[in-house]
Write a structure and sequence with these properties.
Distance between the termini: 43 Å
Helix content: 40-55%
Structural class: mainly alpha
Largest sheet: 2 strands, antiparallel
């Protein structure tokens, strides 16, 4: 699917995906998507389908480890703001995980 399928109804920074305006796909959007999933697994955000919060520490750890793997594999290849966003998100998620894990 071509992400540049723009229409006049989407605000700046978003593109039309079959009638739905979504953020443009870039590295930071991808990282925030994974971080959002970790927040759901940590019980910090409700699940989108049910609106309920539930904690799944194994899934949270897996998602955090995935972000850490991305950080390692992309080290030296990211723009400064991308590296900072990823590092800050990882630090924040790790603190929440440690707190939740007791």
């Amino acid at each position: 699917m071509d992400q540049k399928n723009e229409c006049d109804t989407c605000p700046d920074g978003q593109v039309d995906y079959a009638g739905m305006c979504l953020p443009e796909v870039d590295f930071i959007t991808f990282v925030y998507s994974l971080a959002s999933a970790a927040m759901v697994h940590l019980g910090e955000m409700p699940e989108p389908e049910s609106g309920q919060t539930a904690v799944s520490l194994p899934l949270a750890k897996h998602t955090i480890d995935t972000l850490a793997m991305l950080e390692g594999k992309t080290r030296g290849n990211l723009a400064d703001d991308e590296a900072k966003h990823l590092g800050d998100l990882l630090a924040h998620l790790r603190m929440i995980y440690v707190r939740a894990n007791g």
